[in-house]
Amino acid sequence: MFRPGMQPGMPPMGPQSFNLWAVQPVPGNFITSCPQCVYALPPSIRGTWWFPLLSSIGIDQYQRIYMWFMSVDRDRSGTLEINELMQGQFPGNIKLSPKTALRMMRIFDTDFNGHISFYEFMAMYKFLEMSFNLFLMNDRNRSGTMEPHEIQPALQQMGFFIQPRTAVLLHRLFSLGMAVCDVSCWVAICAFAAQCRSSYQMLFMNPYYGQMKPFNPVEFGKFLDIITALLE
């Protein structure tokens, strides 16, 4: 069955875990299949919270993402700038708004140079793919939208354990006045939550700021509640 936003030829979704903190490597992933690729990974990427996303990319998908990356990298710089991200087509025909593209830059640009390298882009692509597939799964009436009350359980499936009030605020902040949450709204919410995760890592998992603490999803959910409330 074709679903709103689904690209023609996209296979039906099977059982899948969307928990960002429990990403499992896929057999034949590009990391195990391409040792020279792993050698080329910058150390700054290995320490990120989203590094496990790379191990969930199979070698076939790796090659497809590489071809897409090269088609968008029009100046052949080997990196993507924010305007190139906004021109790109992602899973589900997602188009990034300027604000969402900027959030993606701040999440995945590990050296803060204003450019996305190929490996950073791969993780971003996988994040958007997971976000879109989760949107499809929670669009239960196949309307191409999610109801506001579906946002909190969907975010919990990703590992964002927020309060119901926070979900209401997130919808209000990113829905652009719509009564429902379309895919652009959902991607903007996911990008905001992921950016908060990056900030949380910098603050609580960096020895520069004091004693490092293991990541606790429930504690991070409280952090996300507070940050969202500040934007109200």
From TrEMBL:
Q: Organism's domain of life?
A: Eukaryota
Do the record's keywords include NAD?
Answer: no
Please provide, alphabetically and separated by semicolons, the GO molecular function terms listed in this UniProt record.
Answer: calcium ion binding; calcium-dependent protein binding
What Gene3D superfamilies would the database entry show?
EF-hand (1.10.238.10)
Question: What keywords are annotated for this sequence in UniProt?
Answer: Calcium, Cytoplasm, Metal-binding, Repeat
**Per the record, a Pfam family?**
EF-hand_7
Listed InterPro entries: EF-hand-dom_pair (IPR011992), EF_Hand_1_Ca_BS (IPR018247), EF_hand_dom (IPR002048), Peflin/Sorcin_CaBP (IPR051426)
Q: What is the lineage of its organism?
A: Eukaryota, Amoebozoa, Evosea, Archamoebae, Mastigamoebida
Q: Where is the EF-hand domain?
A: 96-131
Subcellular location, record wording? Cytoplasm
- Where does it sit, as one GO cellular component term? cytoplasm
Main site of residence?
cytoplasm
* Protein name, entry field: Peflin, putative
Residue ranges annotated as coiled coil are none
